[in-house]
Amino acid sequence: MTTTLQPPARPAAAGRATPHKVLAKAGLYVFLLANAAFVTYLFNAAGVGSNKLINFGRLAGLYGALAMAFQLLLVARLPWLDRRLGMDKLTSWHRWVGFTIFFTLIGHLVFIAFGNAGADGPIAEVVRQATELEGILRALVAWAIIMVVGAVSARFARRRLAYETWHFIHLYTYIAIFLAFSHQVAVGSTFRKSALATGYWWGLWAFALGSVLIGRVVLPLYRNWRHQFRVAAVVPEAHNVVSVYIEGKDLDQLGARAGQFFLWRFVTKDRWWQANPFSLSAAPNGKYLRLTAKALGTGSADIRNVKVGTRVFAEGPYGAFTTMHQTRPNALLVAGGVGVTPVRALLEEIKGHVVVLYRVSDPREAVLLRELEGLARAKGAVLRLVTGSSKTITANGPLLGPENIAALVPDVQDRDVFICGPGGMTDAVITSLDELGVPSNQIHAERFALAN
């Protein structure tokens, strides 16, 4: 279905990079590079020995420790970073930093073992040190945990594991970090060489662990204590879709924005342990928050049975899929499947002229369509329902191919494009936009992947 309203005439605006993402990325790079340089300085100040293998091993261990601290910062879910980069970008960094830890710690063990190896070989030397020197056994346990986590995080293994199993194994990383730090305190020559080095490492670890404590524990507890979230209503939207309205105190002070999501935990005896990520399906209005869930799994299917008055523990808001990153006066919103929920919220908040492409296989699957139609009429937006199978070919080629997108939205190069939907659809749209010459800083897509 399409509204007949036409875009108002607007002067062309020059493209510009959003400063928020640039600032956040620059901040992370500066933090990492400055600390790497200082770690190298402390290593040299502590004295470099004549054994090159041991020197390489020590330096690899120090870089591995720095990467661990940086990893904690990435998973801390700090609002300043999350709202500028988004969970998916932070998770991507988390993955690459994780493999950096994996390989630096392999290098640390291998270089140290071969550098100290006597006539009996490196393995015998590792066994000897583990039985005779304080902190070595803890380091080996930490190393083994990191190796297991790294192995199960490889794509071929990750695809074969249930998310809950992978997540449970991943949590052992925190134990490994604690053991690695205790090893560094016990035998790290650079750590103990000077008051400056000791103060630096204690300060770095305190900052990293403090970030996790604040972002993952203190902020969620404070927000839930302050806002007292409860279920206000449960409204069926379709045979397998339900909207849940959440009320609370001072919701106008929560800082949530359209396009963001929360981790929702309904505090009942059967569900208190289970947290589900759902986007806001309506722009926050200070009175209530709304999520809309489709029965795709056990967790989301059970939400329709939640009773009014149930306490809710909500973590968030999370995500950078917001108008904070809009660079152009007008926008194109592309939604697919349950990805319509944050798009519907964005349509309510976003400024300028808006075109919405809503991709579904069958018009009967178009959740929240009436709400979208009403919002489109009220805002003077254009709503187009793009239907058909993935093999459907229009007169302009594939449904979400570059030619068809250009036909549906002729001025797409002059719009910010917000995309939310299944991974395949999102990738196809981004590829088409690239072919159409839409600048990358105008393309906004967020996949709801959580770094642990």
How would you characterize this protein structure?
The longest helix has 33 residues, at 195-227. A hairpin with a 2-residue loop joins strand 1 (230-238) and strand 2 (241-247). The chain has helices at residues 19-45, 52-75, 79-85, 87-116, 122-132, 136-153, 155-158, 163-170, 172-187, 189-193, 195-227, 298-302, 340-349, 369-379, 402-408, 423-436, and strands spanning 230-238, 241-247, 261-266, 276-279, 288-294, 312-318, 330-336, 354-360, 382-387, 393-394, 397-398, 415-420, 443-445. The protein starts with 18 loop residues before the first helix and ends in a 7-residue tail after the last strand. Helix 6 packs antiparallel against helix 9. It has 452 residues and is of the alpha/beta class. A 5-stranded parallel beta sheet has the order 9-8-7-12-13, sandwiched between helices. It has 16 helices and 13 strands.
The biggest sheet amounts to:
5 strands, parallel
Let me know the average pLDDT. 87
Question: By helix and strand content, what is the structural category?
Answer: alpha/beta
Shape: elongated
* Helical proportion, percent range: 40-55%
> Within the largest sheet, what's the order of strands?
9-8-7-12-13
Assembly context of the chains:
single chain
Integer-rounded radius of gyration: 26 Å
Give the amount of beta strand, in percent.
15-25%
Distance between the termini: 41 Å
**Low-pLDDT runs:** 1-16
* Alpha plus pi helix count: 16
Number of distinct beta strands = 13
The secondary-structure element order is HHHHHHHHHHHEEEEEHEEHEHEEEHEHE
Membrane topology: Multi-pass membrane protein
InterPro entries: FAD-bd_8 (IPR013112), FAD-bd_FR_type (IPR017927), Fe3_Rdtase_TM_dom (IPR013130), FNR_nucleotide-bd (IPR039261), MRET (IPR050415), OxRdtase_FAD/NAD-bd (IPR001433), Riboflavin_synthase-like_b-brl (IPR017938)
Protein name: Oxidoreductase
Keywords: 2Fe-2S, FAD, Flavoprotein, Iron, Iron-sulfur, Membrane, Metal-binding, Oxidoreductase, Transmembrane, Transmembrane helix
